[in-house]
Design a protein that fits this description.
The complex is a heterodimer. Chain A is α/β, with parallel strands linked by helices. Chain A is built from eight helices and nine strands. In chain A, strands 6-7-8-3-9 form a five-stranded parallel beta sheet. Chain B has eleven helices and ten strands. The model of chain B is unreliable at 1-16 (pLDDT under 50). The chains are: A alpha/beta, B alpha/beta. At the A-B interface, strand 1 and helix 2 of A face helix 8, helix 10 and helix 11 of B.
Chain lengths: 242, 276
């Protein structure tokens, strides 16, 4: 099986200039690669940097050093130091990211939110709508909600809309940040099926799953992210918010 | 409904597909100072077709000065702006003749003012506002102009029955949408926007933002947008330039700058936003 993403010696630090320039080393010297059809599960306590790793790979956080290479349009592309438009092209064609949280755009209907990744790739509206309706049905979003903007939906409904959006198009590489968290059994089952279908279609997956049952259902390998030294007591998220 | 309008609009859009691997705009060492750290200096970047660049920073950081230089309204003290025209040749903006620059501003470029009253002709009808650029390009057929006017009113979600009304009878949000239609009618490839949602109520802002997102993608516009509203920047911009005291202190992917700012000033800017 061919490798689709390769991370070498990746590190991530946060320098908090508003907090007397405190420097946090959240990721240090991480190396791994993931092959097509394989799911790597990130393992470690809260605060070990699992979400930070996914966000850094996605380009949402800027790495301090190292290399992140992905197979993009049949060639290796280095994401560390890449131009914004290269990162955006990778996000459109190659690298998908599914989190628990939907970033709501005012006034945009659920169906359009879900279809967007397909339209951005140039699918026809009919084709995109058929796929979006199929996913929303599978994820038990009632049809009467499809034309409404998801801003007013419950947290669980928004999460499922976001998952439908995340699985709208096939991604060669997918990053999954607790996609099954706080879902009920039947919906969690649907998400696990979607993940296994993506694997079957040859996607390389990197995921965070706190729920053991979900982890066992999809995981092929674990990446141990337990820090060598206990120097960081707060999570990066908490520190950024303080 | 009116096939004529659709044909006209398509005709305006039907340019050969631009070479997307080449920049549309090349800016090198651009500057104009009104005093120490007042104005802007040392600004360099490339803008590609279809790319949306947001310029953020506090008042007085030089955002508006930079926008004036970029959009051909004010000659810089130093630096060069090269624009790749539809004919695929490069034009040095401030070495070009006044006539060349003016033609560019009315055809391939657009400028959306913060205050729609600065960008509209308030004494003529909505339809005449939309038709002006086309008339300047030689379109004289009344039926055709009217059809285009009706089509653009519907594209910017204004009731077509308002085509003969003066802009002053419109609400602020409608005026801003009319100003956008007036700019986009000539099929520009590059549009400058100065705080386009600045003077509007929040509810009206959301609608305008959604409309602009759709138009930017459909028409494959390159946009340079100045805003102090980081939420607007997040929704519209692909990448950001953060300005402070006349200099660019940080550039990068929009969500990276907003979620993981590196420069002390960017961190201050992002952390100063009140979360509703």
């Amino acid at each position: 099986m061919n490798t689709l993403i390769e991370v070498r010696d990746l590190s991530k630090t946060f320098t908090l200039h508003q907090q007397n320039g405190v420097v946090l080393n959240v990721l240090r010297g991480l190396s791994f690669s993931v092959r097509a059809g394989e799911c790597l599960v990130l393992h470690g306590h809260s605060g070990a940097g699992k979400s930070t790793l996914l966000r850094t790979v996605y380009g949402n956080y800027r790495p301090a050093g190292g290399s992140i290479r992905v197979q993009h349009q049949h060639a290796w592309l280095e994401l560390v130091g890449a131009e914004p438009r290269e990162v955006l092209a990778v996000r459109q064609q190659t690298l998908g990211y599914v989190s628990q949280f939907l970033r709501v755009i005012p006034r945009v209907a659920t169906l359009d939110v879900v279809m967007e990744p397909a339209l951005a790739r140039g699918w026809s509206r009919e084709q995109a709508q058929a796929r979006a309706e199929h996913l929303l049905s599978r994820l038990n979003i009632p049809q009467r909600l499809w034309q409404l903007a998801p801003g007013t939906f419950s947290g669980g409904e928004q999460q499922r809309v976001n998952i439908a959006r995340g699985f709208m198009v096939p991604w060669p590489v997918m990053l999954l940040d607790e996609p099954t968290a706080s879902l009920d059994d039947s919906n969690r089952q649907v998400v696990l099926e979607l993940i296994n279908e993506a694997k079957g279609a040859g996607a390389a997956l990197i995921g965070i799953f706190h729920d053991r049952q979900a982890r066992e259902a999809v995981s092929d390998r674990l990446l141990d992210m337990t820090p060598q030294e206990q120097s960081v007591h707060l999570t990066a998220k908490e520190l950024l918010q303080c | 409904m009116n096939a004529g309008a659709m044909n006209t609009v398509r005709m305006m859009d039907a340019e050969p597909v631009a070479d997307r691997t080449q920049p549309l705009l090349k800016v090198r060492g651009l500057g104009k100072l009104y005093g120490p750290e007042t104005g802007c200096q040392d600004v360099s970047f490339d803008l590609y077709p279809g790319e949306v660049l947001g310029i953020v920073g506090e008042s007085g950081s030089g955002k508006s000065t930079l926008l004036s230089l970029l959009s051909g309204r004010c000659p810089p003290d130093s630096g060069v702006i090269d624009y790749r025209r539809k004919e695929d040749d490069w034009l040095d903006l401030y070495s070009a003749s006044e006539a060349q620059r003016r033609t560019l501003l009315r055809t391939e470029w657009g400028f959306v003012e913060q205050n729609p009253r600065d960008g509209l002709r308030m004494a003529v009808s909505a339809g005449a506002n939309i038709g002006e650029r086309l008339m300047a390009q030689g379109m004289r057929n009344y039926q055709q102009l009217r059809a285009v006017g009706l089509d653009w009113l519907s594209q910017v979600e204004i009731d077509s029955a308002r085509i003969d009304d003066l802009p002053r009878t419109f609400s602020g949000g409608m005026q801003q949408r009319l100003q956008i239609a007036r700019n986009l009618v000539s099929g520009p490839r590059l549009v400058f926007m100065d705080e386009p949602t600045g003077g509007l109520d929040v509810s009206v802002q959301a609608r305008l933002l959604d409309l602009m997102r759709g138009l930017v993608r459909e028409l494959d516009l390159a946009v340079v947008i100045v805003t102090h509203d980081l939420a607007v920047a997040r929704l519209l911009a692909d990448r950001l330039m953060v300005m402070r005291r006349s200099r660019v202190v940080e550039t990068g992917l929009t969500d990276q700058i907003l979620d993981d700012p590196q420069h002390p000033y960017s961190q201050l800017l992002v952390s100063s936003v009140l979360q509703p």
